[in-house]
Design brief:
Number of helices: 8
Helix content: over 70%
Mean pLDDT: 84
Low-confidence stretches: none
Shape: globular
Number of strands: 0
Order of helices and strands: HHHHHHHH
Distance between the termini: 25 Å
Largest sheet: none
Number of domains: 1
Strand content: under 5%
């Protein structure tokens, strides 16, 4: 087994564990209360980190991949940008058709009367996103260990709130602990599955990473900019702490990026 396989397996498993832990904190209720108080700050830090990784690392790396083994005078950047847009628009389509009532980061109350069908539709819709979380981790890890770690951390920072929110929806639909755990384990497994499937496919098609990376980046960009930022702004009001937390997420990215660059060089 290659070192990149073990890195992908470990990162994919840890990211999946974040979904499961998000569901577990709903029991007992005292832990749930504390977790829900902190989820906005966790999301804000994760959002800042995700945006920084996408714009500072993933998009430049995508351009670099498309420049390789090509006559620079004939490079056409339309294709990777179309893939980026396709990932973004696909997420929009899925979240507003398959899971129209799902909002990442919004804890759902039992008195809202969510149907079982809506709750599981939300799980299905989020499963598409979590699958591409795994693809992103695997694609980045195949390029370099440092980039793989940064992408893994960007994914991991929103896994716990993701599991908490989906678990809350399942509870609001009248399901018990077993239903919550089934939903969050499913999300975790789709993350790991996405990572492993891409790794296996990528070994047979060496150029696959340059197509998968911008598409998965489009999914990530949608989650960060169109899901998380509006949710954070809507529920935090004028709280300066949430804004500071988002900037801290960006600062954390730069600190780790510089540290990793020094380490690997």
């Amino acid at each position: 087994m290659s070192s990149s396989f073990w890195q992908i397996l470990i990162f994919g498993s840890l990211a999946a564990l974040g979904n499961i832990l998000g569901g577990l904190v709903l029991f007992p209720s005292k832990v749930q209360t504390y977790a829900k108080r902190s989820v906005r700050l966790i999301l804000a830090v994760g959002t800042g980190f995700m945006l920084a990784v996408t714009f500072i690392e993933i998009l430049p790396k995508t351009i670099e991949l498309w420049q390789q083994n090509v006559d620079h005078s004939a490079i056409n950047y339309t294709a990777p940008m179309v893939l980026l847009l396709a990932g973004y628009l696909l997420t929009q389509l899925l979240e507003h058709t398959i899971a129209p009532h799902f909002h990442l980061g919004e804890e759902v109350r039992a008195d809202e009367g969510i149907s079982v069908g809506s709750a599981y539709a939300a799980v299905a819709g989020m499963g598409i996103h979590t699958f591409f979380d795994g693809v992103m981790i695997a694609a980045a890890s195949q390029l370099s260990a440092g980039l793989g770690f940064l992408v893994f951390l960007a994914v991991a920072l929103h896994k716990f709130p993701e599991g908490l929110t989906v678990g809350s929806m399942v509870l609001a639909a009248g399901k018990a602990r077993g239903g919550v755990m089934a939903a969050t384990i499913t999300l975790g497994l789709t993350t790991l599955l996405g990572a492993l499937i891409f790794h296996i496919a990528g070994e047979g098609v060496s150029s696959l990473v340059r197509y998968a990376l911008p598409f998965a980046a489009g999914v990530t960009l949608y989650v960060a900019a169109s899901d998380l930022v509006p949710e954070i702004n809507h529920h935090s009001g004028r709280s300066v702490f949430v804004t500071i937390a988002m900037f801290l997420g960006v600062g954390l990215f730069f600190a780790l990026d510089i540290t990793l660059a020094s380490f690997f060089h």
